[in-house]
Amino acid sequence: MGKLLSGHHCIAQFYVLGFNRKSIYDYTPTEKKYILWAVAFGTIVGTFPMNVLYVRFGARIAFFSAGVLSAVTTAFTPWAASQSMWYLVALRFLQGVAYSADFAAIGVVISKWAPLDETAVFISTLTSFTSISSIITNGVSGVICESEWGWKWSFYFHAAACLFVFVTWAMVYRDDPSFHKSVSAKELGKIQKNKSESHIRDDMKIPYTKIFTSPVVITVWLCAFTELSTLILIATYAPIYFRSVLGFDIKLIGFYLGIMLAIHLPFRFVCAFLSDKTKCISEITKIHIFNTLSVGFVGISFIVFSQIPREHNISAVVCLAILECFTSFNCGGFYKCGTLHARQFSSIVISAIQFTKCISLFSGPALVAFFVSDESNQTQWSHVFLTLAGFTFLANILSFVFFTDQPAKWTEEGGAVKYSKKKDIVKI
């Protein structure tokens, strides 16, 4: 999505550019924590207000507004950093508020534009923005920071690019495909096939209580939380674990982590294609298989990873790469279940997944702080991995009890339709 060109990743440049130790940009570990956590707090605070904006104004205006906020805060980041650490924290908080719009936009686009039989492909493509943005932003920032322009121009460049992308979004995107001049009746029929009239019209009052108390939706969020907790723990602590426990040279750590990311992305699209195009088994069976691979097998991989000794450290890299590949199946697992079940309200379900992602930014470090006092002690780290693995197993078991591929009763008010060009419903 549009955030792939925002400044969320640029802030890391402050920590690697080699400023003089007395520089105002030389932050203490505590200050770095505040700067990084400000985004998480902003996302938590912004998630539900953003959903209100999406409901009231539609994704076109709401997401564009979030993009403008992201561009402005990114452009002012160098100035804020030169003034005060707390100015920078405030801007990072606002970037978090802008970031909270991403998953809601994904949910709206899938609900409005994705044919039901291409749900996994849409989910896989749209949820890849974090990985893609990391690759692009870190690469571009590195080049700019090493140039004569200096690190500040990295922020200015990303701000300008972000604004350009979101202006393009506002010009191209329409909240309803039936009102898009480039969508033919045939294409619209494919988009709306087997969707209810209520889904297409999307004029129902949002049943927040039913959504937030649905066992299916709660289980989707639990699965998402456990899987995202493992990924964030890896992203945050893998360099430390690789160096302190597995004995890797620090120069090789980034290389190995880059390989894992490179393998993960293409595999994700393969998984989405298999989820949507495999017709020999039922949809709910596919959801259970894909969810077990993306949640349950991630837990198994974590257990194996925690037991690999230092002398077999390459095996640990392979194990972690396999774990990353297993997460690629989530597009056909809990994401797909939540989308198919909530239908026109899937933006609420998916945006709440982003909320759980922010919570995991705190739960992971809390587990490490509780269990790990010596970063070179593999046994202490294994307690963290085993705890997370246990939660993934619990979530996976509950998914077999509650998951479904059917729309919830609170999404239905009409029959299935073929297409509804300009709101002329044609029932089948």
Short description:
The chain contains 18 helices and three strands.
Written overview of the protein:
- Residues 1-407 form the Major facilitator superfamily (MFS) profile domain.
- Its main location: membrane.
- Pfam families: MFS_1 (PF07690).
- This protein is globular.
- β2 (416-419) and β3 (426-427) form a beta hairpin.
- It contains 18 helices and 3 strands.
- The model is unreliable at 2-9, 11-21 and 414-428 (pLDDT under 50).
- It has 2 domains: 1-6 and 24-185, Up-down Bundle (Growth Hormone, Chain: A); 207-408, MFS general substrate transporter like domains (Growth Hormone, Chain: A), CATH 1.20.1250.20.
- It has helices spanning 29-57, 59-75, 77-83, 85-99, 101-113, 119-126, 129-146, 152-172, 185-192, 197-201, 208-212, 215-244, 250-277, 283-307, 313-327, 334-342, 346-371, 378-402, and strands at 195-196, 416-419, 426-427.
- The longest helix is centred in the middle third of the chain and has 30 residues, at 215-244.
- 71% of the residues lie in helices and 2% in strands.
- Strands 1-2-3 form a 3-stranded antiparallel sheet.
- The protein is mainly α.
